[in-house]
Amino acid sequence: MGLGQALDISASGIEAQRRTMELIASNIANINTTRTVYGVPYRRKIAVLSDKPISFSEVLSKAELRYSSELGGVEVLDVVEDQTPFQKVYNPGHPDADEQGFVKMPNVNLAKEMTDMTEISRLYEANIVAFNSSRKMGSDLLQIQ
Q1: In angstroms, rounded to a whole number, what is the distance separating the alpha carbons of residues 102 and 91?
Q2: Cβ(96)–Cβ(35) under 8 Å?
Q3: Which residues are CB-contacts of 10 (< 8 A; sequence separation ≥ 6)?
Q4: Which residues contact residue 132 at a Cβ distance below 8 angstroms, ignoring those fewer than 6 apart?
Q5: At 125, is the secondary structure helix, strand, or coil?
Q6: What is the pLDDT of residues 60-76, one digit of tens each?
Q7: What does pTM read for this prediction?
Q8: Adjacent-strand bridge partners of 88
Q9: How far apart are CA 9 and CA 15, in angstroms?
Q10: Cβ neighbours of residue 3 under 8 Å, at least 6 residues apart?
């Protein structure tokens, strides 16, 4: 693997973590949204991450041609809604309360979101460190005489 590929892999991780962090921010921002445009409470959004698929034949042909394209990395494959049930809170004065006075609240748990945010920010930082290290190796390589 060349330095360019290492930079591409780190950059793909940075982008995937950035998109995941945006979803977490959206979840936290909508923690009290009881009615969306669809008439139901907000559902927690989750990023589905996957490694960038590459077959052995692609790797072999690129190696034979000495073609250094993007190999590996991570990508956001999909964004799905968490299907856990909504929380019911007794609040008879709320405009979205049912006949018994219960309001369906979003399935967003602040503690879970904050834990995920901490984990994602550490992964983001790790990818930044790897990216900067690869960049420094490339710079140091040019200084060799």
Answers
A1: 6
A2: yes
A3: 127, 128, 130, 131, 134
A4: none
A5: helix
A6: 776 666 555 556 788 89
A7: 0.79
A8: 104
A9: 10
A10: 134, 137, 138, 141
